[in-house]
Each structure stands twice: as C-alpha cells, then as structure tokens.
C-alpha cells in the first residue's frame, strides 16, 4: 500500500520512483511510466517453483500465503504456472498477518486432513518461522511432506533467529542467484568496515540482497542523471484549491520525462548482475534451489529462464527443456532421501463406493469371497479388480474406495449387468468395476472408461474328426487312378523285362504260362526286392538293358512305397478335426439351440439375429457350457454358444481339444469400468 501511494505521487509530479524492495506483482498493473522496480518481481520465480513440482511428478500443491497484497499478488501467477504443467491447486491456505499460534495450528490441522502433501509458502520470515515451528510440533515436518519456500523468506533468511533452523529441516528454498565477482567482494568488504565503525556492538553483520539492489538502484539513478546532464531540478508549481492539502502543493518536474528515458536505456553490470529496465522492470534472473539441512543450507541446483532446472549453472546453458532435470541430493522432511509422492490418504473424506458383479462362473475376472457365518464379503479378487487397483495406485493423488458386491443378503447376484449399471445411474454406487462390456445403449445412462480387454463376440462350436477309420483305410493313401496306373506299370515292366531276357535267359523260358507268371512275379517282387532276398526265387537278369529298366523301376517303386507309408501313418495317427457348425445361418435354418452367458447383453444380440426364444439356453460357468455341448441340441443341450472373446479364451484354455471358434465376430468395445460423473454433469 505504501509503494502504491508513493508511485501515484511520482506519477503526479513526474518524478521517477525507483524501488529496491517492492516485489508484489500487483504494482505492475499501475502501469506508471515513472515507476522502476530495481528488484525481482515475485512472479518471476513461479516458473522455477513449477519446474520443481514437475521434476518430482507432483500433481497437486497448496499455496500458504499471508493475507495482504504481498501474499495475494503472486497467487494468480503461481496458479497459472502450475496449470501449465497439469498440476492443480485444490486449496488456498490464507494466514492472517496478525494470526495467533492457535489460528495457525487450526489451519495446519485442516491441511493435514487433506490428501495433498506439497506446500508452497509465501510470507515474510517473521510469520513463516512461526508457521514452520508449529508445523513441526504437530507432525507436518515428517516423512511424506514437501515444503517449498519462496524468496519472500529466503531473501531475508539470515535475518531470522538461528534457533529456528531446526524447524526448517528438509525445506526447499528458491531465491535470486547473485554471482560472485571482485566488485561484489570489494563492496561487501568496504561495507562491513563502514558498518562496524558505525555499529561496533553488532558482530558479523551481512548485507542482504535488498541492500545490493539498493546500491544498484542508486548507481543506475546516478548514471541516468549524468546522461541527461541535469544542472538544476525545477518544478512547475500547480494551483492550490481553497481546501487543499500539503500533497496538492506538489509541483511537476521539468526533468522527469528526460530522466525516465535515461533510466530506460541505462545498462551496466551491477553487484546483483546485469541491470537493464524493460518496461520499468528488471529482466528475469537466475534462481538458486537450496535445501535446508543440518545447521545451514546446501545448494542443489539452479533454474534459468532459458534452460530450466540444472545441477550446475555452467551446464544449464547446454541443456534443453526436454532433458530430464537434474538436481543434487536432497534431504527431505523426516531425514529421508526418497522424494515424497505428494499425497497421502486423507484422514477424513468420502470413500468411493465401487459396485462389483456377483457371478458363479468365470471367476477369473471377478470373484467375491463370502464369510459362511456372517454372509459378509471378505475379499474381492480377479483380473478386473487387479487392473482397477493398479490404475488407482498409479494416480498422482489419493483416492479411497471400497468394493461393494451387487448381491442379495444371501450372497446371490442381485441382477444382471444392466441392473448394476442402473444402480450406478441412481447413485447407489459411484463406480462399477468388473467384466462389463461397453455397448451403446448402456452409454446413454453412464460413462465408460477406455476398454482394458480385447473386444468382440464370437461363436464357439464342437469339433470332430471327419475321417472315419475302418478296415479299408489302407486304400485311402492312394487314389483309384494311382492304384490302376501302378498296376498297369507292374504289368508293363514285367513284359519289358521278358522281351529283353527270354531269348538269352533260361529263367524266362518254358511254357507260355510259366513265362507270363515269371515276368509278372519279377516285376511285383521288386517292391520288396524279393528277387534278391528270397531263396526260392532264382530269376536273374543278364541283359544290361533289362538291368537298366529294373534300376529305374526300383527307384520308382521306392518313392511310391515311401509315400504310401507316410500317408497311411498320417491317416492312422493325426486327427482331421473340423467344426460341426460353420455358419450362423445353418443354426437359424435347422433351428438348433444355442447358448449364452446368463445376464449378458448377448441375449438381446441373438434375438436381434432372429433366434427364437425357444432356441436360447443360459449357462453360468465353463463347466455348465461343456455339459450343454455334450448333451447336444436334440437332448436339451446346445449346438453352439455365443459369448465375448475374453470368456471364450478362458473356456478354450480349459477345453482346447473339443471346441473351436468360428466367424463371424461381432464387434463390441470390450470391458470397461463404469462411472457416473459425466452423467451427473450432463444432467
């Protein structure tokens, strides 16, 4: 308020107002050309703070600030910076400047009941040290908490009582970085000497950054006055009203416009860094990130507008915004090196009511275990439950929930999946978790998450061996054409050998019947080489042409016999399994009975495909489905079943040798979790 008042006076009298301590961003909104801020705007540090929040993956942060212009001025900029990294501000904790210890304790206890454990403190040291002392007393400086302090405290850190350092263990601080230089060291040495002469009772006094900004501000003003060659300071008097005050007697400076022009163009290397005013403001500076540990503080990194977070300042220029930020080792509250996850399960709050279906079969997805005495659910397990638990564990904030079975008092299912969805619609459950398929008519009442399983409805049918084995199976390997062709070649080879041998080989002579029998016997005996191994067979070929014919024929016979043996072996050992039903239209024509899982939306789909009510049979488990297939459609069973792919995969995993899936596959969106939030928003 004082700065605002003085700036208005300077604007009225055309006198430049140079401040080295007014850090509130709200002063920028005055847009006075006569106001120069020779200090860092509080809003310049919000990017460094948001970079820390992003580096550790925190998704929520609570600002704790004093209820004046100094405290409130930074909050809009801090909120925007956190939103840019997808971090949320769930609550703003305002501490009155005149707050008692009891008021501070009440506010901190309120924060303890919330799930967020990341706090950003922006207040003067006088109030901040009291807040941290109380926070330590009530247990908020233990493991799991993360505290970030703005330069509102850290710039005046050394002015605080050294005894308060114990309550700040593990805190991260942000403050403007001042590079060491010969000019700075020389100035500090001269200042200490002068200060010690004027105040001999004060020992080890140090000049804080505001003193350095004050020196640079005075230096900038002196350079500007020299540049405009001001020899006198004239003011034009204004008229005074009859009821005027002393403030109304202020004149208007003749040199003000030239002086602000000179200040705007002044550039030099000051004690705190490069001094250059852009629209009356210093450019954003480098910020130090330090960790309070032990009896002091330890530097863990830097933040620059160009490169973000970096472990070393000289390496920051070479890094990119896509590099993973690197900070030095940090000792967090509770004397731990593990970064806090940023949230804890709140001590109070509403639990999400999670409805789960109750079913007899396919318990791999959802299984509810009951206490036989009290009939109360003792545990809820299954694949769907594991997926939901994993999703909730990966959330960046705490969500408490409990599973409530959708069942009657005796532990039986209270209805179909559509009934469970209607309970979510009515508000009995906040969420429904289970093997619930995403279909369009259900989406009119509730909202679904993305699917987490394979989608589709398929048909499953029994399989059987199409080849019937009998005594004549040995004729199957060769076709009748091949059998006849082989027999003709046996006769032909016997005739060729007789033609070549009967004139020179006595074994092929004699009566015509003997010669014919010997020739045919010789050609057939080559199949098992009986003419060489059988002692009763004495026929030999002596003609080279006949021997050549026999060699070629033996090679052909060898290929023929090996092929026959392989084909016969395959027929006798390998099953030729084929589905009993290949087309859904076949089921409709023959009016065969088909099965579907009880409570499933598949019943409506089958009725839409023109299946009669008398053709539909319900089942609850894989075992019951197998029994229905074993009976057959004519004996009260089924010829085919329709169900979703995840269920069918479980069924085939258990009965893989008896059944197979068939096209077509009807498209669905898979299993998803049900929520009511979007529905409530729409209503």
Automatic annotation (TrEMBL):
Its main location: membrane. GO terms for molecular function: ligand-gated monoatomic ion channel activity. It is found in: Membrane. Residues 351-681 form the Ionotropic glutamate receptor C-terminal domain. The keyword Ion transport applies. The keyword ATP-binding does not apply. Keywords: Glycoprotein, Ion channel, Ion transport, Ligand-gated ion channel, Membrane, Receptor, Signal, Transmembrane, Transmembrane helix, Transport. Belongs to the glutamate-gated ion channel (TC 1.A.10.1) family. Signal peptide: none annotated. CDD domains: GluR_Plant, PBP1_GABAb_receptor_plant. It holds the Pfam family Lig_chan-Glu_bd. May form heteromers. The chain crosses the membrane at residues 480-500, 545-564. This is Ionotropic glutamate receptor. Coiled coil: none annotated. One of its GO terms (cellular component) is membrane.
């Amino acid at each position: 308020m004082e700065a605002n008042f003085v700036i208005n006076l300077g604007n009225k009298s055309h006198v430049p107002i140079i401040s080295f301590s007014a850090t509130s961003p709200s002063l920028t909104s005055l847009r006075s050309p006569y106001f120069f801020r020779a200090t860092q705007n509080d809003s310049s540090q919000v990017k460094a703070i948001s970079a820390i929040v992003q580096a550790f993956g925190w998704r929520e942060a609570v600002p704790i600030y004093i209820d004046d212009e100094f405290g409130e001025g930074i909050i809009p900029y801090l909120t925007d910076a956190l939103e840019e990294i997808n971090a949320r501000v769930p609550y703003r904790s305002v501490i009155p400047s005149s707050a008692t210890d009891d008021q501070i304790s009440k506010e901190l206890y309120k924060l303890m009941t919330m799930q967020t454990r990341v706090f950003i403190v922006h207040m003067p040291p006088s109030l901040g040290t009291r807040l941290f002392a109380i926070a330590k007393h009530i247990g908020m400086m233990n493991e799991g908490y993360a505290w970030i302090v703005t330069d509102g405290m850290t710039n005046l850190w050394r002015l605080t009582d050294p005894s308060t350092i114990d309550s700040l263990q593990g805190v991260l601080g942000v403050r403007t970085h001042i590079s060491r230089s010969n000019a700075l060291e020389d100035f500090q040495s001269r200042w200490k000497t002068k200060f010690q002469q004027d105040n001999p009772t004060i020992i080890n006094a140090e000049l804080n950054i505001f003193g350095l900004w004050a020196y640079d501000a005075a230096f900038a003003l002196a350079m500007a006055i020299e540049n405009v060659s001001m020899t006198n300071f004239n003011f034009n008097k204004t008229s005074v009203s009859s009821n005027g005050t002393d403030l109304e007697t202020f004149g208007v400076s003749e040199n003000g416009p030239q002086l602000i022009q000179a200040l705007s163009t002044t550039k030099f290397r000051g004690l705190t860094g490069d001094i250059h005013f852009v629209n009356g403001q210093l450019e954003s500076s480098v910020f130090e990130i330090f960790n309070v540990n032990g009896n002091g503080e330890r530097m863990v990194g830097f933040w620059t507008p160009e490169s973000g977070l970096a472990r070393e300042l000289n390496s920051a220029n070479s890094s990119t915004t896509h590099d993973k930020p690197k900070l030095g080792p940090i000792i967090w509250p509770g004397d731990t090196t593990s970064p806090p996850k940023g949230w804890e399960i709140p001590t109070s709050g509403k639990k999400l009511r999670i409805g789960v279906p109750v079913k007899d079969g396919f318990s791999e997805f959802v299984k509810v275990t009951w206490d036989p005495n009290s009939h109360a659910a003792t545990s809820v397990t299954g694949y769907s439950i594991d997926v939901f638990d994993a999703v909730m564990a990966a959330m960046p904030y705490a969500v408490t929930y409990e599973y409530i079975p959708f069942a009657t008092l005796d532990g039986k299912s209270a209805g179909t999946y559509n009934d469970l969805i209607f309970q979510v619609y009515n508000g009995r459950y906040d969420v429904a978790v289970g093997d619930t398929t995403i279909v369009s008519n259900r989406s009119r009442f509730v909202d679904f998450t993305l699917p987490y399983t394979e989608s589709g409805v398929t048909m499953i049918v029994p399989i059987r061996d199409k080849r019937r084995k009998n005594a004549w199976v040995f004729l199957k390997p060769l076709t009748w054409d091949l059998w006849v062709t082989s027999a003709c070649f046996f006769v032909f080879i016997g005739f060729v050998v007789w033609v070549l041998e009967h004139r020179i080989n006595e074994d092929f002579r004699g009566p015509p019947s003997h010669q014919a029998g010997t020739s045919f016997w010789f050609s057939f005996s080559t199949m098992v080489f009986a003419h060489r191994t059988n002692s009763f067979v004495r026929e030999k070929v002596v003609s080279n042409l006949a021997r050549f014919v026999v060699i070629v024929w033996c090679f052909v016979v060898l290929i023929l016999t090996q092929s026959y043996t392989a084909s016969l072996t395959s027929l006798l050992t390998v099953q030729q399994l084929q589905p009993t039903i290949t087309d859904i239209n076949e089921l409709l024509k023959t009016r065969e009975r088909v099965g579907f899982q009880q409570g499933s939306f598949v019943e409506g789909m089958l009725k839409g495909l023109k299946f009669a009510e008398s053709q539909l049979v319900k089942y609850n488990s894989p075992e019951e489905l197998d029994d229905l297939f074993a009976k057959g459609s004519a004996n009260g069973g089924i010829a085919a079943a329709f169900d979703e792919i995840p269920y069918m995969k479980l069924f085939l995993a258990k009965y893989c040798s008896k059944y197979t899936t068939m096209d077509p596959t009807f498209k669905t969106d898979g299993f998803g979790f049900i929520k009511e939030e979007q529905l409530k928003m729409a209503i």
